[in-house]
Amino acid sequence: MSTLTIAWIALPLFVGFSIYLFPRLDRYLALGVALASAGYASYLFVAQSTLTLPLLDSFGVTLIADEMSAFFIVTNALVTSAVIIYCWHTNKTAFFFTQMIILHGCVNAAFVCADFISLYVALEVISIAAFLLIAYPRTNRSIWVGLRYLLISNVAMLFYLMGAGLVYQANYSFAYEGLSNAPIEAIALIFLGLLSKGGIFVSGLWLPLTHSESETPVSALLSGVVVKAGVFPLMRFALMVPEVDPIVRIFGVGTAVLGVGYAVFEKDTKRMLAFHTISQLGFVLAAPEVGGFYGLTHGLVKSALFLIAGTLPSRNLKELHHKPINTSIWIALVIASFSISGFPLLSGFGAKVLTMKNLLPWQVIGMNIAALGTAISFAKFIFLPHNPQGEGNVKPSFWLAMIILIGGLILANAVYYEAYTVKNIVKPLVTIALGWLAYFLIFKRLAIKLPRMLEQFDHLIGLMSLMLLLLFGMVFA
Amino acid sequence: MLEACIFATILCGFFGIILKKNLVMKIISMDVMSTGVIAYYVLIASRKGEALFTPIIPVENGIISHVENGAYSDPVPQAVILTAIVIGFSIQALMLVGVMKLARDHPTLESSEIEKHNTP
């Protein structure tokens, strides 16, 4: 088991560089790695045990592989393989697939490590690989978006590194458990790094531009799994160290509401999806015990939605109302939108019910508002005009990717089939009905453009210092 | 005292990232900040600046001589920060390559100008 885990972590890095040596096999090798991860995750599900693997005697460098990591690993595997298949017949070079597989490997590493330094290395390599993927078209805009991402995440990680040093000073170990007896500055600094990296609350406002201006497959990958590498450690902390659990939950609610608040007013498809990523990460954090399942459904649905949004004839929702889209694409779009709104039969429903059940009483109102906002904003997609001869250029590989992602959504119902009771089914239906009503009565006519001032680079860095103060206050309280 | 200097370095770097207009200056400020963090790890390793010796056991005439307990610095943070240094400079190299590409169309490299031209 331990050998298997280590081999599985090393595999993507090894294969990633081999792709460069055998550029003709790039797609097959990449797909092979993604399938290996899927296999490892299913092994973890079957084994039902927690593997703790200390790599270095007493300094806390450890790996922990349990069911929660298995959920995230399987998300990573499915999303990566869907994106590889989507790119199969494009003229992407071996370089693109190399970066994709290295990214896949580092995200996996972030999902199993249990000490601050392994996490730091994984997150930094994720930044580098993600930068190379974002800047792959080599246009001025893509390079700027990538640079902005790299600068912000690197500054955030420097704060994180200071926090990790303080934890070591207090415990002589880098293990996550050390957080409980670390000084408050350490908690604030580490949280600042991870909140910025994971796109949570106002420190996540770098995310909409980055995710919406990248190419379609890259946005699917970034929104589907990469941001979760920053969120996953927060969930681990909340479960290991009871003192930080309330902070994580507060950020969960705040993020969920902030994200939908922006999303309901957004008129650009990809930006709306990016704001939804912020809000859904809030749902993952709001109930850390069951966040794994929510992360799985969100990863699948969001990458499916980004891939679909890439095939639509326009990014502007206003223009889409005048250009009917192809009915087959519309059906895929509706299935995905229903899942994210929490409609029964799709696993988004089970995940929402499970999360709602594990909320603390003070979180319920905020999360219900966020769920309503989700229904409102996805009504924009569901009520798009469509006809069988509509526009939309689709490749056969697109449908194969959709089958993986949407099939995964339907199969994942099995994880929490207990959700199907009358009471549980009625509530999301009412939420969705209310959301649609609000959409037709209010939001369809509204044309408010929210200011994008906070998304400017200087403000994003400045917000970090404010967040640091806020975190100090929260930890101190 | 040492600690205060290190925090001042980190803060200088951080404010440089916000206040400097030129993109290259922003990247250099980031480097200043990461130098501060590296120095902080060295300080942690030296246990508040009291033990600065490397943890090598002194051998005189083939006999291991006595080492005072705790008089040497902790090797773990030093080993860890080495990784961070490597990552830091590779990220910087990558950023400077990106800046070189951007400089062709924006010779002044003012970040607000670049931002205005490249955001939708």
Strand and helix map with partners:
The complex is a heterodimer of chains A (477) and B (120).
Chain A: H1 2-21, H2 26-47, E1 51-54, E2 62-65, H3 67-86, H4 94-112, H5 116-134, H6 140-171, H7 184-198, H8 207-213, H9 216-226, H10 228-240, H11 245-263, H12 269-286, H13 291-311, H14 317-320, E3 325-326, H15 327-341, H16 347-357, H17 364-382, E4 386-387, H18 396-411, H19 422-443, H20 457-476
Parallel strand pairs in A: 3-4
Antiparallel strand pairs in A: 1-2
Helix pairs in contact in A: 1-2, 1-4, 2-3, 2-4, 3-4, 3-9, 3-13, 3-18, 4-5, 4-10, 5-6, 5-9, 6-7, 6-8, 6-20, 7-10, 7-20, 8-9, 8-12, 9-13, 10-11, 11-12, 11-17, 12-13, 12-17, 13-15, 13-16, 13-18, 15-17, 17-19
Chain B: H1 2-19, H2 23-45, E1 59-60, E2 63-64, H3 75-103, H4 111-118
Antiparallel strand pairs in B: 1-2
Describe the structure.
Chain B: The chain crosses the membrane at residues 79-99. Chain A has helices spanning 2-21, 26-47, 67-86, 94-112, 116-134, 140-171, 184-198, 207-213, 216-226, 228-240, 245-263, 269-286, 291-311, 317-320, 327-341, 347-357, 364-382, 396-411, 422-443, 457-476; strands spanning 51-54, 62-65, 325-326, 386-387. The model of chain A has no long low-confidence stretch (mean pLDDT 91). Chain A is built from 20 helices and four strands. Helix content of chain B is 65%, strand content 3%. Chain B is built from four helices and two strands. Chain B has helices spanning 2-19, 23-45, 75-103, 111-118; strands at 59-60, 63-64. Chain B has a two-stranded antiparallel ribbon with strand order 1-2. In chain B, strand 1 (59-60) and strand 2 (63-64) form a beta hairpin. Classes of the chains: A mainly alpha (477), B mainly alpha (120). The A-B interface holds A 59, 117, 120-121, 124-125, 127-128, 131-132, 135, 138, 140-141, 143-147, 150-151, 154-155, 158, 161-162, 165, 168-169, 172, 174, 209, 213, 452, 455-458, 461-462, 465 and B 10, 14, 17-18, 23, 26-27, 30, 33-34, 37, 40-41, 44, 74, 76-77, 80, 83-84, 87-88, 90-91, 94-95, 98-99, 101-102, 105, 111-112, 114-115, 117-120.
